[in-house]
Amino acid sequence: MLRGKKHPKIFLLICVLALSLTVTVVLRGTVFAACSFTVTNTNDSGAGSLRSAITSASNGNTICFSIGSGYQTINASSGYVISHSITIDGTSQPGFSGAPLIEINGAGAGAGVSGLDVTAGGTTIKGLIVNRFGGDGIILNNNGGNTVQGNYVGTNSAGTAAFGNGASGIGMQTPNNTIGGTNAAQRNLVSGNQGTGIAILALPLAAI
Questions:
Q1: 155 CB burial (10 A radius; 0-12, 13-18, 19+)
Q2: What is each CA distance from 67 to 17, 39, 96, 107, 184, in whole angstroms?
Q3: 177: domain range?
Q4: Among 69, 81, 65, 70, which residue's Cα sits nearest to residue 158?
Q5: What is the tally of structural domains in the chain?
Q6: What is the pLDDT of residues 25-46, one digit of tens each?
């Protein structure tokens, strides 16, 4: 007797459940797609390290951080060459609430070594603390169109003491880069470096 009878409530419930499942899958896919590589430890190299993520990344990839929670220090034994157009997003570290939590300490990287040597162009670096390298903290080489925002370059993690880099905080040898921005979250704190805070060796700039 019920075989040919429709049940609107049951049908609606099935549709709602199917829609919920679809939305969940899409949202989860978006979250995972945003992070191509995730740094999970403070090791200088090897699986889960920042160096491994940078080496493995391709154009368009995003590197995120999930090293426990809160402030973490990566002690670099050498600089990092960024040869693909990628995003390094320190603001992804759990516990981030405005001030950078991921410190890259270059005290052991060697004389004259720069921290993040960006050669690819089209790269975004945000939410990092870059200090104590012998050369520039961040150097933009070869290709322009880079974005550097929300970083502490040449200070301690609190931004209250000088842990300077040996040359400039940020050096630019390419044009059309964006350094900082119009809101507080985009601004860089560049201080305590032995050379110029921001060295501009190429024009035009997109913004500074």
A1: buried
A2: 35, 7, 12, 21, 25
A3: 37-200
A4: 70
A5: 1
A6: 333 333 344 999 999 999 999 9
Would you say 100 and 129 are in contact if contact means Cβ atoms under 8 Å apart?
Answer: yes
User: Rounded to the nearest 10 degrees, how much is the dihedral formed by the CA atoms of 203, 204, 207, 208?
Assistant: 20
Q: Do residues 117 and 141 touch, judged by C-beta distance below 8 A? A: yes
Which of 65, 64, 39 lies closest to 52, judged by CA? 39
Q: Would you say the pTM of this structure is higher than 0.85?
A: no
The C-alpha atoms of residue 97 and residue 179 are separated, in whole angstroms, by 21
Q: What is the pLDDT of residue 201?
A: 80
Q: Burial level of 10, CB count in 10 A (0-12/13-18/19+)? A: exposed
- Whether residue 7 lies inside any domain: the answer is no
* 160 against 18, higher pLDDT: 160
Identify the three-state secondary structure at position 23. Answer: helix
Six token digits for residue 190: 């560049």
